[in-house]
Design a protein that fits this description.
Keywords: Membrane, Transmembrane, Transmembrane helix
Radius of gyration: 27 Å
Number of helices: 19
Protein name: Isoquinoline 1-oxidoreductase, beta subunit
CATH architecture of the largest domain: 2-Layer Sandwich
Structural class: alpha+beta
Shape: globular
Domain Aldehyde oxidase/xanthine dehydrogenase a/b hammerhead: 216-294
CATH topology of the largest domain: Aldehyde Oxidoreductase, domain 4
CATH superfamily of the largest domain: Aldehyde oxidase/xanthine dehydrogenase, molybdopterin binding domain
GO molecular function: oxidoreductase activity
Transmembrane segments: 20-39
Number of domains: 3
Strand order of the largest sheet: 12-13-10-20-17-18-19
Oligomer: single chain
């Protein structure tokens, strides 16, 4: 990874002190500092029975314990967030220990989502200022306590390496020796945060704090939990969305050794056994009849046809500048296209699972979730209990990608556990996981643009139809027919168009629930917009980079990213026949990213992605190792979507069942990924999802460069690219 150039300076967008809550209380001789990411604002108060939200605790042994309001699902959050605390608190990273935050929607709210959840690549963005303030506040109180004991001015003391040091006398006190006095110290009204030039940790390549446990097997995921007496269950749900269980013959299943109980639900049946092997055998032995209901004849073609028709009608206006229709009517060149992207599954390495112990007046849950408070609320409803009677223990996630923002797996487990005596771990098979996902929506887009006589774009008109995940998941955020997820990447483009119009038509597929998928709205919109910009460049007879660059005079940051990607990829260098380079540029999740994909198209139409060059301006880089890893990860996820990703329906049923029919990118297919970061003083942007949304149009544009064929529908259809014999 390299850092190549410096972007323009910008003011630090900060948060005031009232945006976080700092509270202190002596608990067993320890100093407890609590900070809220809710931005609700409250002054510190001593309380004997203090329940912190996101908090720092410093024990008598000097150990710093950070209770995390976010979750770790492979994105490096459990390293980058502690780096913020450790930086301001002047401790080494290995002095910070983490604890999962409990469910508490009020105290642990994600400031950028308005709910307690980890997603949308915003954990670091949301915690950047409040968590540093928390560390700085703790440091100030420790210094004040030491100064009081020594009878000196606090300004003559400084913190370093977990100690307070008085230079004039050479005296030192470890943090653990100051906890009782520091707990009684007044909370400062203001604290100074370190300027970037004084950072010791932030910006350095820190090793992952969670890596050792994952390597030696001590890390605990939801699927690893084994409370005493736990049984294992697996289930079959109606293969048609909205269908019901008609009948089941469980005679053969009950005869299998280890099978303990068959649980029937309205639309599912579960086999409870001593272990997963017996549960699977029992499930296979069941003779089940289903009532498919209203959607038993649904096909992917039906969904696509409805969406296409929807784009012929007007929708909610997401953005309007000038008069696009008039400008297009008078344009020298008119360019039109339609695009489609399919349903996609999440296919996390760890399949859906949840362990539940249901008791008459209490329900205990062990799970790995991105939205613990949502799990608690929905599980409580299923259990018929008040939320405070549902205890949820969160764990590491073996992949999330948005799938574990949903609580359906926990609800299912509670429904099963209610019919049992004792705890039960419900594990979905891979087939059940893929065929009962909450899929990335199917989208249909219709675009028209106009160019003047010199090939300069003068108008852009974009209308698209598809499902709104936000409308289901967070109804208050869906207003006037629009939501920020569905439109991100389609509006506020980096390019400047004098006439610009975007409409969204909400159209829910019958019976199919959709969900957030890695890179959410931009995973759809960036493919469409960056592919269509490429079409405009071709219509104008211009190079794709030159065409884009001319539209970025007003945005030097974006132009710097574009230039760096093109330079490092050797954009103007010739390639062998059958190979091509394609570029994409996006502003998503608070980061600017350009990618150049180099692909090869074989005579049989198969596509190989050989190299991907990334240039990113993500603001201040906290951990460059994480940035590189997440860009690589996101790109692999996106390449999978471009080459193979598609969930299809036939007779109301999902046709894909496992990794043989829902193919994932293989190791031998993985491209080389080069990452180049631009030095920036802007606050940190998001990383985890950016690579996924940017790579798909880069690949599609590279295919056009190699073959002259424009692909407007994903995944890639090799038959369109196959050369005649």
């Amino acid at each position: 990874m390299t850092s190549d150039r410096t972007s323009s300076q910008a003011s630090d967008v900060g948060l005031s002190r009232r945006n976080f809550l700092a509270s202190s209380v002596a608990v067993g001789g320890g100093l407890v500092l609590s900070l809220s990411l809710s931005f609700s604002g409250s002054e510190a108060a001593v309380a004997e029975d203090f329940v912190p939200n996101a908090f720092i605790r410093i024990g008598r042994d000097g150990q710093v314990v950070l209770t995390m309001p976010y979750v770790e699902m492979g994105q490096g959050t459990y390293t980058s967030i502690p780096m913020l605390i450790a930086e301001e608190l002047e401790v080494s990273l290995n002095h910070v220990r983490l604890e999962h935050a409990p469910a508490n929607e009020k105290l642990y709210v994600n400031p950028m989502l308005g709910v307690q959840a980890t997603g949308n690549s915003n954990a670091l963005r949301g915690g950047w200022k409040p968590l540093r303030q928390a560390g700085a506040t703790a440091k100030a109180m420790l210094i004040a306590a030491a100064a009081k004991r020594w009878g000196v001015d606090a300004k003559s003391c400084r913190a370093q390496d977990g100690e307070v040091f008085h230079a004039a006398s050479g005296r030192r006190l470890k943090y653990g020796e100051l906890t009782i006095e520091a707990a009684q110290a007044p909370i400062p009204k203001e604290v100074a945060l370190k300027p970037p030039e004084e950072f010791r940790l932030i910006g350095t390549p820190a090793k992952r704090l969670d890596a050792a446990g994952k390597v030696n097997g001590t890390a605990t995921y939801g699927i690893d939990v084994r409370p005493a007496g736990v049984k294992v269950a697996t289930l079959a749900q109606s293969p048609v969305f909205g269908g019901k269980l008609k009948s089941v013959d469980d005679t053969a299943a009950k005869a299998i050794k280890g099978v303990r109980q068959i649980v029937r639900l309205d639309d599912a049946v579960a086999v409870v056994a001593d272990h997963m092997g017996a549960a699977k055998k029992g499930l296979e032995a069941l003779k089940i009849e289903w009532d498919g209901g209203d959607h038993a004849a649904l096909s992917t073609q039906d969904v696509a046809r409805e969406l296409e028709q929807a784009t012929l009608k007007t929708g909610a206006v997401a953005q309007n500048v000038g008069d696009a229709d008039k400008a297009i009517a008078n344009a020298a060149t008119k360019v039109e296209a339609t695009y489609q992207v399919p349903f996609l599954a999440h296919a996390t390495m760890e399949p859906m699972n949840c362990t539940v112990h249901f008791r008459r007046n209490e329900c205990e849950i062990w799970i790995g979730t991105q939205a613990i408070a949502r799990v608690q609320a929905m599980a409580a409803k299923a259990a018929g209990l008040p939320p405070e009677k549902v205890i949820v223990h969160n764990h590491l996630l073996g992949g999330g990608f948005g799938r574990r923002l949903e609580a359906d797996g926990a609800v299912r487990a509670v429904e099963i556990a209610k019919q049992l005596d004792g705890p039960v771990k419900v594990i979905w098979t891979r087939e059940e996981d893929i065929q009962h996902d909450l899929y990335r929506p199917y989208w249909f887009d219709r675009l028209v643009a106009g160019l003047d006589k010199d090939g300069k774009p003068i108008a852009w008109n974009h209308r698209f139809a598809g499902s709104s995940v936000i409308a289901r998941w967070l109804p208050p955020a869906f207003a006037n027919g629009l939501d920020p997820d569905s439109t991100e990447g389609a509006i506020d483009l980096l390019y400047k168009f004098p006439n610009f119009h975007v409409e969204y038509v909400r159209m829910e597929p019958p019976g199919i629930s959709t969900g957030f998928w890695r890179s959410v709205g931009p995973s759809h919109n960036v493919f469409v917009t960056e592919s269509f910009v490429d079409e405009l460049a071709a219509a104008a007879g211009q190079d794709a980079v030159v065409f884009r660059r001319a539209l970025l005079d007003h945005n030097p940051r974006a132009r710097a990213v574009l230039d760096l990607a093109a330079e490092k990829a050797g954009w103007s260098q010739p390639l062998p026949k059958g190979r091509g380079r394609g570029i994409s540029l996006q502003n998503a999740f608070g980061s600017l990213l350009a990618q150049v994909a180099e692909v090869e198209v074989a005579k049989n139409g198969s596509v190989s992605v050989h190299r991907v060059t990334c240039a990113m301006d993500c603001g201040i880089v906290v951990n460059p190792n994480t940035v590189q890893a997440q860009l690589q990860s996101g790109i692999m996820y996106g390449v999978t979507a471009a080459l193979y990703g598609e969930i299809t329906l036939k007779n109301g049923r999902v046709e894909q069942t496992n990794f043989d029919t829902y193919q994932i990118l293989r190791m031998n297919e993985a491209p080389t990924v080069d990452v180049h970061l631009i030095n920036s003083s802007e606050p940190p942007g998001g990383i985890g999802e950016t690579g996924t949304s940017a790579i798909v149009p880069a690949i599609a544009n590279a295919i056009f460069a190699a073959t002259g064929k424009r692909l407007r529908k994903m995944p890639i259809d090799v038959n369109q690219l196959k050369q005649p014999a």
